[in-house]
Amino acid sequence: MKIQDKETFDKANVFGQGQANNAYAQYFIGNSYLNPLTDPKECGVGLANVTFEPGCRNNWHIHHAKTGGGQILVCTAGSGWYQEEGKEPVSLEPGTVIVIPAEVKHWHGAKADSWFSHIAFEAPGTETSNEWLEPVDDETYANLG
């Protein structure tokens, strides 16, 4: 469900916007916000609500792992995109769940005309790391949907 109005989006974004995602800003086009929901040091599992302003998307990236690993996205508010390298983009709406295995090059973010939020779950694994790659270029992004 596309939501352009920030006040309307804030009511739908039940896990909260959080703070500016400054630590990872270099890997995003546009502004994103991070609201950690768990502390992986306490429970072994990292969950965070990530909010994207309209048009915001992260760079292509890969979640590496020797075993296990990867990421799960649980879409909660607004409307966004997910795309794996070599595949068609997937529209993200509240209730959509995306399972991203380790070693799959992908990106995700808001649609150009909607705020978007998802809970990101970093799947446990051994020797896990993220590799940030090139941005999703404006031409590719403009031709989505």
Automatic annotation (TrEMBL):
Gene3D superfamilies (UniProt xref):
Jelly Rolls (2.60.120.10)
Organism expressing this protein natively: Faecalicatena fissicatena
Q: Which domain of life is it from?
A: Bacteria
UniProt cross-references to InterPro entries, sorted A to Z: Cupin_2, HNL-like_cupin, RmlC-like_jellyroll, RmlC_Cupin_sf
**Identification of the protein by name:** Cupin domain-containing protein
| SUPFAM superfamilies, sorted | RmlC-like cupins (SSF51182)
- CDD domains, per the entry: cupin_HNL-like
Record domain Cupin type-2: where? 50-112
Pfam families per record: Cupin_2 (PF07883)
